[in-house]
From TrEMBL:
<feature type="binding site">
    <location>
        <begin position="134"/>
        <end position="139"/>
    </location>
    <ligand>
        <name>S-adenosyl-L-methionine</name>
    </ligand>
</feature>
<keyword id="KW-0489">Methyltransferase</keyword>
<keyword id="KW-0819">tRNA processing</keyword>
<feature type="binding site">
    <location>
        <position position="114"/>
    </location>
    <ligand>
        <name>S-adenosyl-L-methionine</name>
    </ligand>
</feature>
<dbReference type="Pfam" id="PF01746">
    <property type="entry name" value="tRNA_m1G_MT"/>
</dbReference>
<dbReference type="InterPro" id="IPR029026">
    <property type="entry name" value="tRNA_m1G_MTases_N"/>
</dbReference>
<comment type="similarity">
    <text>Belongs to the RNA methyltransferase TrmD family.</text>
</comment>
<dbReference type="InterPro" id="IPR029028">
    <property type="entry name" value="Alpha/beta_knot_MTases"/>
</dbReference>
<dbReference type="GO" id="GO:0002939">
    <property type="term" value="P:tRNA N1-guanine methylation"/>
</dbReference>
<dbReference type="InterPro" id="IPR023148">
    <property type="entry name" value="tRNA_m1G_MeTrfase_C_sf"/>
</dbReference>
<dbReference type="InterPro" id="IPR016009">
    <property type="entry name" value="tRNA_MeTrfase_TRMD/TRM10"/>
</dbReference>
<feature type="domain" description="tRNA methyltransferase TRMD/TRM10-type">
    <location>
        <begin position="6"/>
        <end position="226"/>
    </location>
</feature>
<comment type="subunit">
    <text>Homodimer.</text>
</comment>
<dbReference type="InterPro" id="IPR002649">
    <property type="entry name" value="tRNA_m1G_MeTrfase_TrmD"/>
</dbReference>
<protein>
    <recommendedName>
        <fullName>tRNA (guanine-N(1)-)-methyltransferase</fullName>
        <ecNumber>2.1.1.228</ecNumber>
    </recommendedName>
</protein>
<keyword id="KW-0949">S-adenosyl-L-methionine</keyword>
<keyword id="KW-0808">Transferase</keyword>
Length: 233
């Protein structure tokens, strides 16, 4: 059973976008995963295909309507669909590599791309949407975030990456940022590859990589180390 993604959006032409290229694109062609981009406006009932309205209580901007979105979600994800329903939102839980792995191990995902000021809260509650954020910043809409999430998931699907170990040694997989990488030439603008990496001593190489990963994490993402300490007790 392949990973099936259904994306609800006002801009279906944004998909597959970059997901149609490289590893994800080849996997899409091979049927390892599938992508359906659904136009939300198709579920509006008025001749203007309206999907938003002014916010209750006043304020700037517009809010996506619960009734229109409910019809779109019910079309994409009828009763019995086991796929999680995600809403790309800056107020959601931060996307983590652990959550990406969970999604990759599942049947797929239904992803709602928000626009304007946001989505009617009643829709989020009624359709049990999981709000997901890709970072502490604001985008014009949820589409770029959905592309990021799907890229992260698809590369972990079986047979997408040529070397399975590649996915196991990356940043966040073991709670640390990834160690530095080097390749030929051995000398570049007066900088040499660290001697340990060309020593052939695999034990020392593993120790060096671990130490460098810890050093980078301590310098750039000390929060990851703190989280690891909390998990360990």
């Amino acid at each position: 059973m392949s990973f099936a993604a259904s994306v609800l959006t006002l801009y279906p032409e944004m998909f597959p976008g970059a997901l149609g290229l490289s590893l994800a694109g080849r996997a899409l062609e091979a049927g390892t995963w599938s992508l359906e981009a659904i136009q939300i406006r198709d579920f509006a009932t008025d001749r203007h295909r309206t999907v938003d309205d002014t916010p209750a209580g006043g304020g700037a901007g517009m809010v996506m309507r619960a009734d229109v979105l409910a019809k779109a979600i019910d079309h994409a994800s009828p009763a019995g669909d086991p796929r999680p329903r995600l809403l790309m939102s800056p107020r959601g839980k931060p996307l983590t590599q652990a959550r990406v792995r969970e999604l990759a191990a599942g049947p797929g995902a239904v992803i709602l791309c928000g626009r304007f000021e946001g989505v009617d809260q009643r829709l989020i509650e009624a359709r049990e949407l999981e709000e997901v954020s890709i970072g502490d910043f604001i985008l014009s809409g949820g589409e770029p975030a959905a592309l990021v999430l799907l890229d992260a998931v698809v590369r972990l699907l079986p047979d997408v990456m040529g070397n399975v170990v590649s996915g196991e040694e990356e940043s966040f997989e073991n709670g640390l940022l990834e160690h530095p990488h080097y390749t030929r030439p051995q000398e570049f603008e007066g900088r040499s590859i660290p001697e340990v990496l060309i020593s052939g001593n695999h034990k020392k190489i593993a120790e060096w990589r671990r130490a460098e990963a810890q050093k980078l994490t301590r310098e750039r993402r000390p929060d990851l180390l703190q989280d690891a300490k909390i998990r360990q007790g």
